[in-house]
Each structure stands twice: as C-alpha cells, then as structure tokens.
Write a structure and sequence with these properties.
single chain; 5 strands
C-alpha cells in the first residue's frame, strides 16, 4: 500500500486574518476601490468552490483521509478551531468541516510555539526576510514530520497550505506527493 499527500494551495481571506484583516481590507479598498474588492471576494469564493468540487470528485473514501491545515495548531482543540473559523465564514475551514462530515479526520498540523514566534516577530516589526525564511523552514519541517508520523499506509493526506511553504521537500520519500490543480488562478495573482 501507499501513502499519498495531496497539497491544496490556499488563499487566505481577510476574515481569517482577524483584526489585521480589517486594516488590510481598508488598505486594499483605498488603493483599488470597492468594486475591485467585490471582484476579488467573488474570485476567492469561486476558487474555493472549484477546490471543493475537485476534492469531492476524487475517487477516494474519505474515511481513509487525514486533513492537515496551515496554521492549525497540533493539539486537542483542532476540531473546535475549525468549527470556529467555519462559523466566521472561512471558505477554507467550511471545506474542512465538509470533509470531516464525509469521514475525514482533521489533524492538528503546526507547532503552536513556532506560529506564535512568527506572529510576534511580524507584530513587532522584526520579521526580516531571513527570519521569515527560517521560520517557514522550521514550520515546514514540523508539518512534514507531523504528516510523516501520522499518515498511515493506505491513507491519503490533504494538506491545505500557503504558497510560500514547501512542505513536500521534507516529507518522507515513501509518500507520493501531488498538488491539486483546480484550473483556477490564485486570486492574489490578479491584484
């Protein structure tokens, strides 16, 4: 049997960024206007609908699927965090909730201490390109190790992860890795 990992590139919505998302939205509207904002939101919604349709069309039993999520801490509250984010309208987390409803297991994915360290550096203005690169490498190694340790033979993992990450290079060579090609351009590329 084989272990498989499907990487799904994610697009963060401003709602997922909390209070910082409101400032980002205001900055975007100031530069591009309300119409462009509405167009961007529609593209993001379309992107997630296309990803959902592509995943649901896969010829797999979701009972044999483990779902890993960018920025979802490895700990006992992973399901609750997904529920909370889905409740706040995150299309990414609504999709995780749907997959769980089909039998997939939601896996805590990232090191909370690494996430907090990176967040604090950004918040304090200490996030140099070198620090960000080191932080991403450390996070990618942690995520890959989490997948290596928890994805069993015969199972499929689905990793929702941002484009700046390169988790696959740290995954065990026995894991067959593929990237979901949804046919939809990432809405960030159209800004």
């Amino acid at each position: 049997m084989t272990r498989r990992l499907l990487i799904v590139p994610i697009v963060h919505t401003f709602g997922e960024l909390g209070s910082e998302g409101q400032q980002n939205r205001a900055d975007f509207v100031a530069r591009h206007g309300d119409l462009r904002w509405a167009e961007r939101e529609a593209k993001i919604e379309h992107y997630w609908l296309t990803v959902r349709d592509a995943l649901l069309a896969l010829p797999i039993g979701f009972e044999q699927v483990k779902v890993y999520q960018d920025s979802l801490p490895d700990g006992p509250n992973a399901d609750r965090l997904v529920e909370d984010m889905a409740g706040h309208g995150s299309p990414n987390h609504r999709l995780l909730k749907l997959l769980k409803g089909r039998g997939a297991a939601i896996m805590g994915t990232e090191s909370l201490s690494l996430l907090l360290e990176e967040y604090q550096a950004v918040k304090e203005g200490r996030a140099s390109p070198e620090l960000v690169r080191r932080s991403l490498d450390a996070r990618d190694r942690y995520v890959a190790n989490r997948i290596n340790e928890t994805l069993a033979d015969g199972e499929t993992g689905i990793l929702f992860i941002g484009a700046a990450h390169d988790v696959a290079r740290f995954c065990d060579q026995t894991i067959k890795v593929a990237v979901l090609a949804s046919g939809v351009r990432n809405p960030r590329e159209t800004q």
